[in-house]
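User: Here's a chain of 451 residues. Predict its fold as tokens.
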Amino acid sequence: MNARFMLAVCTDLHRLDSDSIAMSQELRQRIFAELDAISLIDPHTHINPHAPVARDLGDILGYHYYTELAHSAGLARVQIEEHALPPKAKVARLAEVLPRLDNTVQYSWLIEIAQRLFGFTDDCVNADNWEVLWNLAAAKMGSDDWEQTVLQESKLDAVFLTNDFDDSLSGFDTGRYIPCLRTDDLVFHLATLRVRERLESATGITSGSAGSLRSALGKLFEHFVNHNAKACAISLPPGFSPRKVSDAEVSQAFSALAKAGQTLEIDHRSTLACFAFWTLAEFCQDYRLPFDLMIGVNRSVYSGGVYQGQDLFDSRVSLIQYRELFNSFPQVTFPVSVLASVTNQELVAYSWIFPNVIANGHWWYSNTPAYIEADAAARLEAIPKTKQIGYYSDMYKLEFALPKFAMYKRVLSKILSDRFVQERNWPEERAVSLGKQVLRGNVERYFGFAT
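Assistant: Prediction complete.
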């Protein structure tokens, strides 16, 4: 075989490879365009419905992802959290270290917000051009219709909130900003007098026994459901193992609490936590609300970290700790988020076996494309398509919906293109339909929206 022939063969193979890559990229882009056209319901955020959009660029760069990355990259905590530091001065300090972060996906969120929402034309933010971005952002955010503009650009129909149990739920549109009863304090901090006082103020019931606590929690559910709440939610530490406890055990724990106060022994604290948690699950069953479980966070691991940049995970958590719960409440839907991608295979298996366990989003430290791709592909290949909620933003300001969902949709488009259309010969329309189901359809299915 002569050299000229070999060169021609290699050239043809290279051309075929190039054509194949181009076709694959075009397929992904077509799928992305279809997914990007649909309107969304964001099933988990930390939006304040009274101030849902950023006031200035300081609210954008003040997001904990940027402050903790900047701190990790060398900016002193005191420089980030200096008391009474004006937002513009804070942005100036953060801008100095942003080039050290430009490889991260979080930085790409910033650029996408800057370009698509604020009209910024540069592809980086640094000490030389941050004031240009500040001024552009200020002009946009100063408009009366900025909130509506962000919702429209992000194609958001509704967003779920994270509401304290004593939130009045007044003064905002609960059709757009959907209440969700957050229950961490009720489960893990009942030994704190201030939490019990808040509960009494919200319900008119003094909690000092199993019956009174059950009545108080019932009042909360009634209040939230009457204000269009669609879910109950809790963040859970790795060591928590919920179990059913007797009323007598709870009475003993309350008696001990009356004597010991904040020094209440760990066993009694565990009794109160398990009782409150189990009772919440019972009310979710009664009111037909999903119970969102976000499992695996260790609080205050890095005591020297910036605000919201102190919590981490470890690998000791297992869903086996929730087997009694899942078996005891077959009528309750449990959308489960795991903090570490290493726990995803277990979540896939539980969603595979238990009808009431739903794989939910890509939470916190798993919310980067590399982890999303592996985790989402495993879910799509192994769990019924009706058993998974693709994504939630976990955002604090509406401006982050656009880049976060876009990131997920790009990854999802790649999975659907490569693994379903090309590898399994699915029609493109069928793959798009699957993507729409996990992005929107299943949110409607499990959170009680009319389709």
